Amino acid sequence: MKSIEQSGTAMQEEFWTVVQAKARGVMERMLNRAMDLERMAFLGVAPYERHPARRGRRNGFDRRVVDSRWGPLRLRMPKVRETARPFRTRILASYQRRQRHLERCAVEWVACGMSTRAASRQLSRAFGAVLSAGTISDLV
C-alpha cells in the first residue's frame, strides 16, 4: 500500500512540474509577443513594412531573465534605433529582474517570523528565484 501512495505522490509532483513548465512557456510567449506588438505600435509599422509614417527601426532584442511565480522567464526585450525618444516597454520596468509578487512573499514571510536566509532558501525552492538574504533585508 505504501508504494502505491509513494508512486501517487511522485506522479503528482511530476504532473505539477510539467504544468509549471507549460505555464512558464505560455507566459514567455505571451510577454514576448506583447512587447513585440508594443514595439510595432511605437514604430507605427509592421515588420518589413515601408511607410512614410515610420518613426524608427527595429534593432533586434536583448535577453533578460525575470524571476516570476512560474519560475524564471527568459524574455526578449525589443530594441529600436533612429527614434526621437527611446523605446521603453510598459510591460516591465527598466532593469526589472523579478516580479513584485516574489518580493511581497519574502516580506510577508519575514514579517511572520521567518529569517531572511530561510526566506531566501524558500523562494529558491518554491519559485526558482534567487534573492539574497541581504536583498530581502533591504525589502523589509
Features:
4 helices, 2 strands, two-stranded antiparallel ribbon, alpha+beta, 52% helix, 140 residues
Task: Please provide a brief summary of the model.
The chain is 52% helix and 16% strand.
Order of helices and strands: HEEHHH
Mean pLDDT: 88
How many E strands?
Answer: 2
Structural class: alpha+beta
Largest sheet entry? 2 strands, antiparallel
Largest sheet, spatial ordering of strands = 1-2
User: Which strand-content bin applies to the residues?
Assistant: 15-25%
Roughly how many Å is the radius of gyration? 20 Å
How would you characterize this protein structure?
The chain has 140 residues and is α+β, with helices and mostly antiparallel strands. It has four helices and two strands; from the N terminus they run H-E-E-H-H-H. A two-stranded antiparallel ribbon has the order 1-2. The relative contact order is 0.12. The model has no long low-confidence stretch (mean pLDDT 88).
